[in-house]
Amino acid sequence: MNGDSVTLRPVREDDLPVLEAFLVEPELAGPFQWFGWADPARFRRRWAEDGMLTPDGGHLTVAAGGAPVGFVAWHKTGVTRAAYYWNMGIQLLPDVRGRGIGTEAQRLLVRYLFAHTTAPRVEADTDIANLAEQRALEKLGFTREGVLRSAAFRDGHWRDLVRYAILRDDPPA
Fold it and tell me: Domain N-acetyltransferase: where (predicted)?
């Protein structure tokens, strides 16, 4: 990680410009996360309403060396009200990708979710061509569960996603 200390923290108001930039600057979002223009004020409204932390999910700032470099997010999903689990994602600024920061941020998020909720699993979906994210998830001990065919629409085409999951009782990576 080149000496960068990776931390997660609640989103602060001064972090919002970083999050908002992912919604209006395609080159920041990257090839697997750009889904078209989106309302840049939606993060600010959510932050004002609930600090971007609810019982059903949330966003945390990823900081490296104290500076905001992206965010992790999770939302509740599942088959019944009594049986839920988390689906998580990450978005980082281009200049910090490929340095292990994302892997560490996701490790911290999984630890947090298992420590503070009763969910038995955390899953993550990524574009089938996003090999870097697949490697990161595998380093963390996630298991590749399968391919979700035509599950995401991006850049005029339906894309396949790969689903990964880690269970609370899985051995640590």
Answer: 6-169
Q: How far apart are CA 129 and CA 160, in angstroms?
A: 9
pLDDT tens across 101-130, in order?
A: 999 999 999 999 999 999 999 999 999 999
On whether the pTM is more than 0.85, the answer is: yes
SS3 10: strand
1, part of any domain:
no
170 neighbors 140 (Cβ within 8 angstroms): no
Specify the amino acid at residue 103: T
The pair of three-digit structure tokens given for residue 3, joined into one six-digit string: 């000496």
Total domain count, the chain:
1
Structural domain including 136 reads: 6-167
Are the C-beta atoms of residues 125 and 163 closer than 8 Å to each other? Answer: yes
